Amino acid sequence: MATLLLEEHAPEEASILVLGAGGGLELKAFAQAHPKWRFEGVDPSAEMLTLAEQMLGPLSERVKLQQGYIDAASEGPFDGAACLLTLHFIGAEERRRTIAEVRRRLKPGAPFVVAHLSFPQAGDERALWLSRYAAFAAASGIDLEKAKSASAAIDKHLNIFTPEQDEGMLRDAGFSGVSQFYAGFAFRGWVAYA
Question: In terms of pTM, does the model score above 0.85?
Answer without folding.
Answer: yes
